């Protein structure tokens, strides 16, 4: 019933398309065409290289790490996903896009973190010394519309994500995340065959979290309010009063996209994102006690060429992200409200990368690669502590795609190497909990080591006779070897249909 309804709606909206579903699936597997999608434009569906296409799939995804690369996100996970994506070209002048995603899974052995969206809110997180598995359930939706009228074009997109993470044994965190964003784009033709558009986005983020202890014999740990590189807000370490917090975030971004009206040609993109998250204590009159300011910049430039026998793309990319953490000193609430007495800028971090990437397609073969330099540094003002890391990432893949009657078959081999250039870690042990000292020492040891990885993925897709529908299956696996003898494996299985 659902499949029939989706296909009927798709056929009613989309104009007649004589291209087979296998050809449209092959387009989405092309590394050259992937580079031809405008980066941040809400009109990407209209000016991208893809034809009308819908896919619906179920996916099982997992990982196991002998030594957790990011212990705050666990050393493994198992997730089941349902994913639906669609692009419908209503005519030659307008298009709609949409996605629906549901995830249910388990993060294994999460350590020194009970907050969700760690990479969004760090360093200001709640944590405990026990850790454990976290259950996860997430819903995400997005949709967009874009159109052009002569030399002018516009587009609008919206996205919403809801996340629930929890644990059923002490300590018992329960986090609820709401993440909403909207983007509006307007642009025009500025050169023969080329367009420039400007996009503006707004993001509103919230996360409420509560940690509880049910064991009648007492709590098995304390909830810490970490503030970066092992430091903590000692005043609020507790097992009850200060275990409920709330993040409130607001942000925006601006972006420019320069691209050709057809697939082939030069393209460039520039974006700047601003995001501000304030951490509140609801039990203390919603008193704010930390603020995180995140600034991110990205730039890309490259060229896409399509020929009868050979297609290729190449380009440069760079990104930089800076974080500033501000901590509030608040009074004892004797006036009936917790008042901020003074604020200090305590945490700074810088993450940057730059590289070159490219891909070549020839007949049934495709080869792509990327070489990037990366840097990360962080520091806390008092007590003084710092972390620095540098490295080089090299990745390459080779793929072969074949059409055999009603079948589309594809195999991909991947290789990845990280050359670490060492680093530095300076922590004042006299002011650091011994468990946190060992935790950061182990984590730095992993981050400062080189690693190598390899993977393989296989896809088989068959068009159903007398129908615009195909069914497909994807199986992939990847191994990563840190040069400390502890491997990691990543694997996934996807089954779905497309039309």
Helical content, roughly?
Answer: under 10%
Strand content: over 45%
Largest sheet: 18 strands, antiparallel, barrel
SSE pattern: HHHHEEEHEEEEEEEEEEEEEEEHEEE
| Structural class by helix and strand composition | mainly beta
Q: What's the number of extended β-strand segments?
A: 21
Secondary structure tally, helices: 6
* Mean pLDDT reading: 93
End-to-end separation: 16 Å
Residue runs with pLDDT of under 50 for 5 or more positions = 1-10
Describe the global form: globular
| Gyration radius, in Å | 25 Å
Domains, number: 1
Tell me briefly what this model is:
This protein is mostly beta strands. Helix content is 9%, strand content 64%. The protein has helices spanning 2-13, 21-28, 31-34, 44-47, 118-121, 434-447, and strands spanning 53-65, 76-91, 94-110, 125-127, 132-149, 152-166, 172-191, 194-212, 224-228, 231-232, 244-260, 265-281, 287-306, 310-330, 340-362, 365-380, 385-404, 407-426, 451-463, 470-482, 487-498.
Characterization of this structure:
By secondary structure, the protein is mainly beta. The protein has one domain (2-498). The chain is built from 6 helices and 21 strands. It has helices at 2-13, 21-28, 31-34, 44-47, 118-121, 434-447, and strands at residues 53-65, 76-91, 94-110, 125-127, 132-149, 152-166, 172-191, 194-212, 224-228, 231-232, 244-260, 265-281, 287-306, 310-330, 340-362, 365-380, 385-404, 407-426, 451-463, 470-482, 487-498. The strands form 2 sheets. It has an 18-stranded antiparallel β-barrel. It has a 3-stranded antiparallel sheet with strand order 4-9-10, with no helix packed on it. The longest helix has 14 residues, at 434-447. Mean pLDDT is 93; it is low at 1-10.
């Amino acid at each position: 019933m659902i499949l029939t309804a989706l296909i009927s709606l798709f056929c009613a909206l989309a104009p007649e398309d004589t291209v087979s579903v296998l050809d449209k699936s092959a387009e989405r597997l092309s590394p050259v065409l992937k580079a031809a999608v405008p980066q941040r434009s809400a009109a990407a569906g209209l000016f991208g290289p893809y034809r009308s296409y819908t896919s619906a799939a179920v996916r099982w995804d997992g990982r196991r790490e002998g030594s957790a690369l990011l212990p705050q996100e666990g050393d493994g996970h198992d997730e089941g996903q349902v994913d639906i994506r669609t692009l419908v070209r209503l005519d030659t002048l307008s298009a709609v896009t949409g996605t629906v995603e549901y995830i249910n899974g388990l993060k294994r052995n999460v350590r020194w973190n009970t907050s969700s969206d760690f990479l969004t809110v760090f360093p200001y997180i709640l944590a405990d010394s026990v850790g454990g598995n976290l259950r996860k359930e997430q819903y995400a939706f997005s949709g967009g519309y874009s159109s052009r009228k002569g030399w002018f074009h516009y587009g609008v997109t919206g996205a919403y994500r809801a996340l629930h993470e929890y644990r059923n044994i002490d300590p018992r965190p329960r986090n609820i995340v709401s993440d909403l964003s909207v983007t509006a784009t307007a642009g025009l033709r500025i050169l023969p065959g080329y367009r420039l558009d400007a996009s503006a986005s707004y993001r509103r983020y919230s996360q409420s979290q509560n940690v509880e202890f049910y064991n009648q014999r007492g709590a098995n740990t304390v909830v810490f309010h970490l503030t970066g590189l092992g430091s903590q807000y000692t005043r609020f370490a507790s097992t009850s009063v200060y275990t409920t917090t709330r993040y409130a975030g607001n942000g925006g971004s601006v972006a420019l996209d320069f691209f050709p009206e057809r697939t082939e040609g030069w393209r460039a993109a520039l974006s700047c994102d601003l995001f501000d998250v304030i951490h509140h204590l609801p039990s203390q009159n919603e008193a704010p006690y930390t603020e995180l300011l995140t600034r991110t910049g990205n730039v890309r430039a490259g060229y896409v060429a399509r020929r009868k026998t050979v297609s290729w793309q190449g380009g440069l990319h760079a990104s930089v992200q800076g974080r500033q953490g501000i901590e509030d000193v608040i009074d004892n609430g004797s006036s009936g409200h917790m008042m901020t007495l003074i604020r200090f800028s305590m945490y700074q971090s810088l993450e940057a990368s730059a590289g070159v990437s490219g891909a070549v397609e020839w007949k049934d073969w495709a080869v792509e690669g990327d070489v990037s330099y990366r840097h990360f540094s962080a520091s806390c003002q008092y007590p003084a502590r710092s972390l620095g890391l540098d490295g080089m990432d090299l990745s390459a893949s080779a793929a072969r795609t074949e059409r055999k009657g009603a079948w589309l078959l594809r195999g991909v081999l991947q290789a990845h190497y990280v050359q670490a250039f060492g680093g530095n870690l300076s922590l004042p042990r006299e002011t650091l909990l011994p468990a946190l000292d060992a935790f950061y020492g182990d984590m730095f040891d992993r981050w400062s080591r080189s690693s190598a990885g390899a993977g393989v993925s296989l896809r088989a897709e068959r068009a159903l006779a007398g129908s615009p529908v195909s069914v497909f299956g994807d199986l992939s696996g990847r191994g990563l070897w840190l040069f400390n003898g502890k491997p990691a494996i990543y694997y996934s299985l996807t089954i779905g249909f497309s039309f």
